[in-house]
Write the structure tokens for this entry.
Amino acid sequence: MKDNNIFSRFEFKYLIKNTLAKEVEEESKHFMNIDNYAKLNSNNKYLVKSLYFDNLSHTNFFEKVDGVNFRKKFRLRTYSNALNKSTDVFLEIKGRNQDKVFKKRTKINPVDTDYFTTKINTNYLLKKYQNNEIVTDFVFDVLRKRVKPMVLVDYQRKPFINKYGLYFRLTFDSELITSKTTYLFNDKNFINPIKWKPDSTILEVKF
């Protein structure tokens, strides 16, 4: 399976109060449109669900906190609350190369989700996703760095995109919930889920 996507861009995140987020959103409407995917929903938002991988030393977490210029992490990402044969599930590498953020992602078969999470099977993955560099890199980190699923993060995203050609994107992320878990979909296995700063929004600028 070679359904891969790779890009590099600048990204800046800001934690702001909901009242300020609303003001920025209203101003943005003068030169930006709601992303077409978000338009499919009445509230112009969509779910983002991400299961992050790390090792027992929390290497990826501390590299981010320490501002390491060259770093990467793996996550499984989906935009659905339910797993079925048509659910889009992606294995992603998110990282930083100096000032730029890069993301690589590949679509995986939803029936294989457990082989990336609760029942990691590296031999199966290498055979199923032959010549897929992202999956091969994931297997390397599983075997050498001992990464495993650690934290699930859910939030609602409202995205805007520039009307006038040049790539410029704003996203407003709210209703964020996080929990320690090894599952991407099974909410019953959350351990003490946390609703994070309900009065705040994460504004992300991407270009």
Summary: Residues 49 and 154 are 5 Å apart (CA to CA).
